[in-house]
Specification:
The longest helix has 21 residues. The protein has 386 residues and is of the alpha+beta class. Among the domains are: 64 residues, MutS, DNA mismatch repair protein, domain I (3-Layer(aba) Sandwich), CATH 3.40.1170.60; 59 residues, 5' to 3' exonuclease, C-terminal subdomain (DNA polymerase, domain 1), CATH 1.10.150.20; 142 residues, DNA polymerase, Y-family, little finger domain (Dna Ligase, domain 1), CATH 3.30.1490.100.
């Protein structure tokens, strides 16, 4: 008997933060709504679809967003409320499968392959998930259905908001070949521009490109990118209970070659990773640094730490040493991607309140509480500033 084809759902809440605000305050419904900080260098954390029509998107400076849409209503993030709604949404997922890979508060992959005999076809499950989310939270979600993660994520974005899109295996080549290269997950604006300059405008052209051409553009990632352009993706859904690594990474708009700036970016990434560990009640015994050069060559460096930790200072310190050692052998290198990961994860036991690092732990907890109340961008450590 041939193995059962995987059934993967990608569920993505529609304009989540903004939708929660409009649900809780009906006077905001139907209006251009921005969630984020308005002072100084505040940025947009989320924008309603009415605001997006003006070209506004998340991470845009709030001043620019308000320049584009002066009539927009601005509200401050309420992270505690968003987490509360997120828990309701993820509770729905758990009614269909235990194979849930959460990507953020409002987005997850679900492997429902093993649920079909009991709960029906994946399309039926997707529709029921949407109905239950709407009934319990008042919010809409868009769901993509496919046989792998790459295609499911692509599908969920095709008919937003409140969409349900299925990509069948026999549709993949025709569908993907016609898409612009920038629609492929993992290809950002800069890479898309480079591909277009090299004559690759559609994914079909990328899929059929000569080996040498892709090698020059992607280095050792060439075959992986060709496979992605063909809709091939063998990555499993890694449920939260099976999580092996917590990480944060950033792809830069412009390649970086300033060691001081790279160290500052690294500290910010280490802080994000450590905060995620603390939120999930985990400690790490291995720190991992990921680096991708301008030519797409990718490197990882890791070091074991003892005792296991979720302290920002510990993880940032080890990551900084790994980066410094790598840069010593890469003089003048330009870096396009930087990441900090934590592996060898164990659950937190009762901490030693007076042991080494206790003071750092209390500082981390204080920072976490401030960010929970005012949003993740409300407070930055001085060591983030290059």
């Amino acid at each position: 008997m041939s193995p059962q084809r995987r059934a993967i759902l990608h569920v993505d809440m529609d304009a989540f933060y903004a939708s929660v605000e409009a649900h809780d305050d009906p006077s905001l419904a139907g209006r251009p709504l921005l969630v984020g900080g308005t002072a100084g260098r505040g940025v947009v954390a989320a924008a309603s679809y009415e605001a997006r029509r003006f070209g506004i998107h998340s991470a845009m400076p709030m001043r620019e967003a308000l320049r584009r849409c002066p009539q927009a209503v601005c509200v401050k993030p309420r992270m505690e409320r968003y987490r509360e709604v997120s828990q309701q949404v993820f509770a729905v997922f758990g009614e269909f499968t235990d194979q849930v890979e959460g990507l953020s508060l409002d987005e997850a992959f679900l492997d429902v392959t093993g649920s079909q005999q009991l709960l029906g076809p994946p399309t039926t499950m997707a529709a029921t998930i949407k109905e239950r989310i709407k009934a319990r939270t008042g919010l809409t979600a868009s769901v993509g259905v496919a046989h792998n993660k790459l295609l499911a994520k692509l599908a969920s974005d095709m008919n937003k908001p409140d969409g349900l899109t299925v990509i069948l295996p026999e549709q993949v080549t025709e569908l993907l070949d016609a898409l612009p290269v920038g629609r492929l997950h993992g290809i950002g604006a800069k890479t898309a521009a480079r591909l277009q300059a090299a004559g690759f405008h559609r994914l079909g052209e990328l899929r059929q490109a000569p080996e040498g051409a892709l090698q020059a553009l992607f280095g050792r990632d060439a075959e992986r990118m060709r496979a992605r352009a063909a809709g091939i993706d063998e990555r499993p859904v890694v449920s939260d209970s099976e999580e092996r690594q917590v990480s944060a990474e950033s792809t830069f708009d412009e390649d970086l070659n300033d060691p001081t700036r790279l160290q500052a970016e690294l500290v910010a990434l280490a802080d994000r990773t450590a905060a995620r560990l603390r939120r999930r009640g985990l400690l790490a015994s291995v720190v991992v640094v990921k680096l991708r050069r301008h030519d797409f060559a990718t490197f990882t460096r890791q070091r074991r730490i003892h005792p296991p930790s979720a302290d920002t200072a510990v993880i940032a310190g080890v990551a900084g040493q790994l980066l410094e050692a790598w840069l010593a052998g890469q003089r003048g290198v330009r870096v396009r991607l930087l990441g900090v990961g934590a592996a060898g994860l164990t659950a937190v036991s009762q901490p030693d309140l007076f042991g080494p690092g206790a003071q750092d732990g209390r500082l981390d907890q204080a920072i976490d509480r401030i960010r929970e109340r005012f949003g993740g961008r409300s407070l930055r450590r001085g060591s983030h500033l290059g």
